[in-house]
Design brief:
Helices cover 9% and strands 53% of the residues. The protein is mainly beta and 263 residues long. The strands form two sheets. It has a ten-stranded antiparallel sheet.
């Protein structure tokens, strides 16, 4: 707050304007700072996401002794439970067919987690993610291309004395829009842990993970009374997996706006 008050004239009263009209004030701030007009169409959004998930984990391990004898075992776990809620904020600009956003997410570790459980839904530690994204949309042809790149910073799991390293992630999507209600496309992601794990619980050292996933996606929006409900179904098959459990993943995301404006 002190830095902001020194940087701009006091009569702008940005803080009070932000509280009363965030979008209008952001446009005013952009003008005051000399940002070109084509980038002044701004939006500010906040979000809170609840997680309910089902996870089925199966793994095998074997140990070969000096004499050639092998001991093997299979382990598995399955659970359906609540995960960690995620709080977020996004700032966006748009010009013509292009949209840019920068955002932050905070993982709140109150979801289900149990030490020794292979299929935990929660993470049991705080996490902060910063992401920049860009979307190109051609409404006449009905094509949308999107990409995002971000970094996730993990904090210590105090129950295991384990801190996962910083994670680089990139996502992409190519979507064909058939109507206001339905679209489909191809989605994918790349994950690379760029710093090693640490803490007393990191018995395997850095253990830096990596994975590439790709698959189809379906989007459908319908009305529940006066409220639009957006659903997104995605399937990913993973490749080039290192130091992570490999497999396929399904995601179903349902988005319900807190408020909506009807035309």
């Amino acid at each position: 707050t002190e830095a902001l008050s020194r940087a701009v004239p006091s009569d702008k009263a940005w803080s009070s304007v932000l509280a009363s009209n965030p979008v209008a004030s952001l446009n005013q701030i952009s003008t005051d700072l000399g940002i070109p007009s084509r980038f002044r169409q701004t939006s500010l959004r906040s979000s809170a996401t609840g997680v309910i998930g089902w996870k089925d984990v199966r793994a095998g391990a074997s140990l070969t002794g000096p004499g050639g004898a092998t001991i093997s075992t299979d382990i598995e776990g399955e659970d359906f439970n609540f995960g960690d809620p995620v709080l977020g904020a996004t700032l966006g600009w748009h010009e013509g067919k292009f949209n840019w956003t920068v955002g932050a997410l905070v993982n709140v570790p109150i979801g289900f987690w149990e030490k020794g459980n292979l299929s935990n839904i929660g993470f049991n530690h705080w996490g902060v993610d910063a992401t920049a994204a860009m979307t190109w949309l051609d409404p006449e042809f009905g094509l949308e291309l999107s990409t995002a790149v971000g970094l996730t910073f993990n904090f210590e799991n105090h129950d295991t004395d384990y801190t996962s390293g910083t994670e680089l992630h990139a996502e992409f999507a190519a979507t064909k829009i058939m109507s206001q209600q339905f679209s489909f496309g191809l989605v994918g992601y790349y994950y690379d842990q760029i710093t090693g794990d640490s803490g007393k619980g990191a018995k395997l050292g850095d253990f830096e993970g990596q994975v590439l996933g790709i698959g189809p996606a379906l989007n459908y929006t319908f009305m529940a009374g006066q409220t639009p409900i957006a659903t997104n179904l995605r399937y990913f098959h993973e490749f080039n997996v290192e130091n992570r459990l490999a497999g396929d993943a399904f995601f179903l995301v349902v988005t319900v706006p807190v408020t909506s404006t009807q035309p």
